[in-house]
Amino acid sequence: MNKVGVVLFDGCWGSQLMTILDFMTIYQRLANNRVLINSVDYQLYALNQIGVTLANGMRVETQPLTETTTHELLVLVGIEYGHLQQVLNSKQLQNSVLATVLRQSKRVLTLSTASFLIAELTLWPTHPLVTHWQFEGIFRQRYPHYSLKSEVEFVDNGQLCSATGISGALYCLSQYLLRFGQKNLVERCLTIMSKSLDSTEHLWLSESFAYKQHAYTQILAIQHFIDRHYPDNLCLAFLANKFHLSESTLKRHFKLATTLSISDYYQLIRIARMKYLLVNTTLTIEQICQEIGYADSRFARRLFVKMTGQSAKAFRQNLNNQL
């Protein structure tokens, strides 16, 4: 049994916590159905007290953190800003074992405003973080020596990961679960979450997160443009002209930043959207191909098989059978 540790404070966002727990519970149920040995569970922690009150008023039981607490993955849930200010202005962080526990964890994920805790404890000062967009200015003013990234939902620094919201958190959890080798199981979990939660509206874009870990702001802007305009006929000449670059410079910098060609990234986004529509709509495959910008559905079908290893029809049937 592999346990994920979840650290909570009074005022943590209940919706974030419940979504994370739902995701792990769904994975556990599917793993049990397959009688898999590598299942996953979770343990809730607080600094000292046994139990915390979430921002929605719900009371949840926790165990106190100790110096011997170790997990493969430790998640810090975001905190409502009023409660976060109380935590930051008190001495409870500095007087706790949280910094020790974070340092000895193999992987740490901060969600939303929980990135403030990392900076307050002066941990990983050279690693970029992300936080909720409403509090970016406050973060930069309070922690000017930390690098805060904008316009991305997830940052992966190896031991430390940071997500602005639920989509990034579920992506991080899915990458953790993939280490057990059950890709189809993880995909089914993500599919179930995308069908049931409004807060995961952009979860289908999570396949692009790994290619947005660079520091090229102009390339990132181009990626976001492709994310929004994937149905359009985007060519190299158009993108180069729009972003005031030569075609050769754009090709070289895009490949250097993302490891993908522009064409490969473009197709990655279209196929990711195709997966989402196959499961979340009743559109025919022909209609979906047109919806995402492919005039030639035969090309789209062949590309889907090449990128996923199965036909669009089989993908839809296999995932819907598990929902």
Please outline what is shown here.
The chain has 323 residues and is α/β, with parallel strands linked by helices. Helices cover 48% and strands 11% of the residues.
SSE arrangement:
Elements: E1 2-7, H1 14-33, E2 40-46, E3 52-53, E4 59-60, E5 63-64, E6 73-76, H2 81-89, H3 98-104, E7 108-111, H4 115-120, H5 136-142, E8 154-156, E9 160-163, H6 166-178, H7 183-196, H8 217-228, H9 236-242, H10 247-258, H11 262-280, H12 285-291, H13 297-308, H14 312-320
Parallel strand pairs: 1-2, 1-6, 2-5, 6-7, 7-9
Antiparallel strand pairs: 3-4, 8-9
Helix pairs in contact: 1-6, 1-7, 6-7
Walk me through what this model shows:
A 7-stranded mixed sheet has the order 5-2-1-6-7-9-8, with helices on one face. A two-stranded antiparallel ribbon has the order 3-4. By secondary structure, the chain is an alpha/beta fold. It folds into 2 domains: 2-184, 3-Layer(aba) Sandwich (Rossmann fold); 214-320, Arc Repressor Mutant, subunit A (Orthogonal Bundle), CATH 1.10.10.60. The model has no long low-confidence stretch (mean pLDDT 90). The protein has 14 helices and 9 strands.
Total discrete domains: 2
CATH topology of the largest domain: Rossmann fold
Principal-axis shape: globular
Average pLDDT, all residues:
90
Largest sheet: 7 strands, mixed
**N- and C-termini, Cα separation:** 24 Å
Q: Structural class of the secondary structure composition?
A: alpha/beta
Number of strands: 9
Gyration radius (Cα, Å) is 21 Å
- The oligomeric state is single chain
